[in-house]
User: Fold this.
Amino acid sequence: MKNSGKVILVLLLTLCLAACAGGNKHRLHHTVLDKPDDVLPKTLAILPSVVTVNELSAGGIAEEVPAWSEQAKKNLQSQLKAHFNNDSGILKVVDLPELDEQERKVLDQYMALYEVVGGSAYEMSRSNEEAWSHKSNHFDYSLGDGLRFLKEKSGADAGIIFTAVDFVPTDERKAMAVVAAALGIYMYMGNPFIFAGIVDFDTGNILWLNFDIKDGYSDLRDEKDVKFMLRDLFKLYPGIEKYKVAGK
Assistant:
């Protein structure tokens, strides 16, 4: 996905603004509000995710470090399982089984579609434009029903997709930031950011969306930091009552 970095950065900027504005962060498909017992998944499969950890140079140039990105992805997967695969009974998380070439192609197409639809869904549902105001109370975004084969393959009801990004400043940038701060100048030092969506395998409906963003002292390469971010991300899951109140 050649444009993944651009999509992530657009989401980061959009959701930073949303976080600053306050209010309800997560989004729920309207079918979850109507019949939660029938719609909410019991088992989630971890779908391919876009996780990027960049080194931020003294001059503000961001360059991905693949080894860091891979470590962050492993942390997200392991800590997601640790968060849910316990005695809470809320959700069970499983790995996606091996897929054949054709199945992988189909899944790749839907992951690319999710990047566009998921980002648009969140942005439009928070828009102040009157034409989109109904999306806050009637969130109805879907990818279509082409992922049903994953339910048979994995035994899961739905899949979870992460979009995550982090910027790790170099020592030179950290030193520059100290000098800049003394002069009253702010230098961006990076914020780990996680955007997560749950997609129903039967319908393709985006059942739930949420994000978490932390200050520059947190790091997606650190399992403990990822653990706390996921805890905050799913603190109110699925958050039906809060969502209903916020929509009134």
